[in-house]
């Protein structure tokens, strides 16, 4: 599904969840090439911080190794 949001390749951020856009929810960080939802967080700033932390893992093709980083950001978000 296509949604409105901010794009900074290879990531995108939109307001809503994995179920789609929703003005009452936080923001969702998506890895655009794979269309994979990385995490749903409270603010866009938290999504940008997470994207900056996991970008090096993407460059090394080790995104699954970034799972602890994502979990920490989700815990701290809410």
Name the average pLDDT: 86
Radius of gyration (Å): 12 Å
Order of helices and strands: EEEEEHH
> Low-confidence spans: pLDDT under 50, at least 5 residues?
none
Would you mind describing this structure in some detail?
The termini are far apart. This protein has helices at residues 44-59, 67-77, and strands at residues 5-8, 11-17, 20-21, 27-31, 36-41. A hairpin with a 4-residue loop joins strand 4 (27-31) and strand 5 (36-41). It is of the alpha+beta class and 78 residues long. Strands 1, 2, 3, 4 and 5 form a five-stranded antiparallel beta sheet that branches. Helix 1 runs antiparallel to helix 2. It is globular and about 35 Å long. The longest helix is centred in the middle third of the chain and has 16 residues, at 44-59.
Descriptive tags:
78 residues, alpha+beta, 5-stranded antiparallel beta sheet, globular
Write the layout of secondary structure elements.
Blueprint: E1 5-8, E2 11-17, E3 20-21, E4 27-31, E5 36-41, H1 44-59, H2 67-77
């Amino acid at each position: 599904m296509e949604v409105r949001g901010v794009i900074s390749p290879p990531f995108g951020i939109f307001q809503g969840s994995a179920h789609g856009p929703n003005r009452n929810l936080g923001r969702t960080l998506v890895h655009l090439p794979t269309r994979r939802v990385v995490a749903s967080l409270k603010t866009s700033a938290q999504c940008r911080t997470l994207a900056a932390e996991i970008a090096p893992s993407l460059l090394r093709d080790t995104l699954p190794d970034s799972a602890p980083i994502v979990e920490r950001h989700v815990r701290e978000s809410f």
